[in-house]
């Protein structure tokens, strides 16, 4: 129980590291670390909730989130020059923003009666926080490749929410979610590469015109 909430807190810290990293390559490695924490969470939740389906979820998440998605993103940025993209929001602002997000999400989950043990509500608030942290990443980052990680953070949050509230769902549901995430990341990576080859920049603020 303590381990579950500790790992959930570690998810927040790794999310901040993913957002604050200076390059997409570093963010990819940090995202792999976060996904490994998520895998560990699935294992402990399987024990706590007596949900053996979560063991299969952890295996699937390890293959897709720890191995495949970071590999796809690292491969996608290998020929992209990120040094020309100006710095985004000051990393010092991430801590108060994340704190406010977690507090609001905790108050929201604490005020609602859910079919979930009270001691797991902090983990649920963390899972909901990832939606807003992912949105924060998308809004604050000028590096288009870094914006992709906003989606990845939101997807990890939805994955944890599902594990907490629908842990008896068949493994096929989890595999479907993970597969969707892989294809979504691949499509976004291809689009970013296409934009870079056309405009020779990863700066989202340079996308001021739409041309046919």
From TrEMBL:
<dbReference type="InterPro" id="IPR038730">
    <property type="entry name" value="HyfE-like"/>
</dbReference>
<feature type="transmembrane region" description="Helical">
    <location>
        <begin position="54"/>
        <end position="77"/>
    </location>
</feature>
<dbReference type="InterPro" id="IPR039428">
    <property type="entry name" value="NUOK/Mnh_C1-like"/>
</dbReference>
<dbReference type="Pfam" id="PF00420">
    <property type="entry name" value="Oxidored_q2"/>
</dbReference>
<keyword id="KW-0812">Transmembrane</keyword>
<feature type="transmembrane region" description="Helical">
    <location>
        <begin position="30"/>
        <end position="47"/>
    </location>
</feature>
<dbReference type="GO" id="GO:0005886">
    <property type="term" value="C:plasma membrane"/>
</dbReference>
<keyword id="KW-0472">Membrane</keyword>
<keyword id="KW-1003">Cell membrane</keyword>
<feature type="transmembrane region" description="Helical">
    <location>
        <begin position="120"/>
        <end position="141"/>
    </location>
</feature>
<protein>
    <submittedName>
        <fullName>Hydrogenase 4 membrane subunit</fullName>
    </submittedName>
</protein>
<feature type="transmembrane region" description="Helical">
    <location>
        <begin position="89"/>
        <end position="108"/>
    </location>
</feature>
<keyword id="KW-1133">Transmembrane helix</keyword>
